[in-house]
Amino acid sequence: MEGGILHYFHDINEFMSIMYRLLKTGGKLICSDFHPFTKISDILKFGQPTPGYFYSEVFEGEMAHARFYDEETRKQIPKCQYRKYTISEIINGIIGAGFALERFDEHPAWEDEKLPGEFTAIARK
To answer: Which of 27, 44, 28 is closest to 36 using CA atoms?
Structure first.
């Protein structure tokens, strides 16, 4: 999984449980996604910061790629329902589903290498 998908799923625990059931024994989960720090800082320039890091409500927003289109086209792109997670919710979702977390790395933001922008979690069933 990559490129920012977790926020489209409103229940991280259920999502990770499904991923666990899909893998064979010994299978590997590799998840590279937007860092939860982006919940409070628009460092990836998506225009979707939430009211706070621990904010856990589902909210409506534009799809990430909508910003690449002109205003008229943007108006025609349907909105999405998002739920952004904290680091601990993601890690605990992986562990709680039964995975053995092998590695968790944070990567710098595209626009400012001093800030976190993405992460990669590797876990095994």
So the answer is: 44
CATH number of this structure's domain 6-57+84-124, picked from the four choices 3.40.50.1100, 3.20.20.10, 3.40.50.150, 3.90.950.20: 3.40.50.150
Residues sharing a CB contact under 8 Å with residue 28, sequence separation 6 or more, in sequence order? 122, 123, 124, 125
Helix H or strand E encompassing 29:
strand 28-34
The position carrying tokens 């920012």 is 4
pTM: 0.86
Q: Which residues 6+ apart lie within 8 Å of 61 measured at CB?
A: 47, 48, 79, 80, 82
pLDDT digits (tens, 9 = 90+) for 51-91: 788 999 998 988 878 888 999 999 999 999 989 999 999 99
